[in-house]
Inverse folding.
């Protein structure tokens, strides 16, 4: 049970929340528990959705690399909520079932391309240590533009931010 109440979709008294929920439904298809918790502070939810829109919809990262990044961060820092929501997104982005299954031990798997492996190494290192060694960063340069490198860093940081909301607020999985 979440530590703060969810603002229910049909009972949102605040007009700002109703408008945000309409925008979120158009953008994401539904209003998730994380959004309903953040709706207790509508302006925070608005700011959250602006950054989410960049990371999920406007990033220069190819969709498969974005979703693999999100999933390896979710595995590394143990955020089941993100794994639950991003495994279907990864499938839609072209990530195979074999790759999804291999993520917890991706280094031992032959299922990933060199670009995917470079991204996974970087994302895992940043998730675990908040930094990377020169060799890991240099491997990325072979596959990503400067804009993509920034979007990769922003994506990893974003999902750390999400974890810092989901865990302490005890956001429930939607079932």
């Amino acid at each position: 049970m979440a530590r703060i109440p969810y603002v229910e979709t049909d009972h949102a008294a605040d007009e700002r929340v109703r408008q945000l929920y309409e925008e979120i439904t158009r953008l994401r298809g539904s209003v998730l528990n994380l959004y309903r918790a953040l709706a207790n502070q509508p302006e925070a939810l608005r700011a959250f959705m602006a950054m989410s829109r960049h990371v999920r919809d406007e990033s220069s990262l190819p969709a498969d690399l974005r979703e693999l990044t999100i999933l390896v961060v979710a595995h590394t820092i143990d955020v089941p909520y993100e794994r639950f929501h991003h495994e279907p997104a990864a499938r839609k982005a072209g990530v195979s079932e074999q790759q999804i299954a291999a993520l917890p031990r991706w280094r031992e798997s032959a299922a990933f391309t060199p670009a995917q492996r470079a991204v996974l190494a970087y994302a895992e290192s940043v998730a675990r240590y908040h930094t990377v060694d020169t060799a890991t960063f240099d491997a990325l340069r072979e596959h990503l533009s400067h804009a993509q490198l920034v979007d990769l860093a922003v994506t990893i940081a974003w999902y750390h931010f999400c974890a810092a909301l989901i865990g302490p607020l005890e956001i429930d999985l939607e079932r």
